[in-house]
């Protein structure tokens, strides 16, 4: 509860010889003001939580209307999490490209790009110098 009654005595303000004007309000006005302030703080927190939840669900299969519990969008979730190759969508990302360092493809797709005519990173279009395999424990 917000209470400012008796604040003058608590702060030990000496207003006897000063040019100040204090407005007296009733206890119910203070209670109403505190309730309004509390409601506003709760509203701000509620909006912040909803905005955070909306940001976290962007790009997931809930927006596409697919059911998560049935597992019908597991590949979409894996792509969103950055685990699947962006070229073949069949294998996990298990290599990185030198010199840019992007890890967007599986080793087979990266080798195909490197041995091909173009030899550029699918993310940044930088010329690939080497393809290195990632080893995860």
Automatic annotation (TrEMBL):
InterPro entries: Znf_RING, Znf_RING/FYVE/PHD
Keyword Transferase: no
Domain RING-type, first and last residues per copy: 85-125
Gene Ontology molecular functions: ubiquitin protein ligase activity; zinc ion binding
Protein keywords: Metal-binding, Zinc, Zinc-finger
Record carries keyword Coiled coil: no
Gene Ontology terms describing biological process: protein ubiquitination
Protein name: Zinc finger, RING-type
Species whose genome carries this gene: Corchorus olitorius
């Amino acid at each position: 509860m917000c209470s400012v009654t008796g604040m003058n005595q608590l702060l030990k303000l000496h207003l006897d010889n000063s040019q100040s004007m204090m407005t007296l309000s009733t206890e119910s006005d203070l209670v109403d003001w505190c309730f309004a302030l509390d409601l506003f703080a709760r509203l701000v927190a509620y909006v912040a939580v909803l905005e955070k939840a909306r940001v976290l669900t962007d790009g997931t299969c809930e927006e596409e209307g697919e059911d998560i519990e049935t597992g019908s969008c597991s590949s979409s979730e894996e792509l969103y999490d950055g685990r699947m190759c962006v070229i073949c969508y069949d294998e996990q990302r298990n290599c990185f490209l030198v010199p840019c360092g992007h890890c967007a493809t599986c080793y087979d797709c990266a080798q195909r790009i490197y041995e091909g005519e173009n030899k550029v990173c699918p993310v940044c279009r930088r010329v690939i110098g080497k393809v290195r395999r990632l080893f995860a424990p």
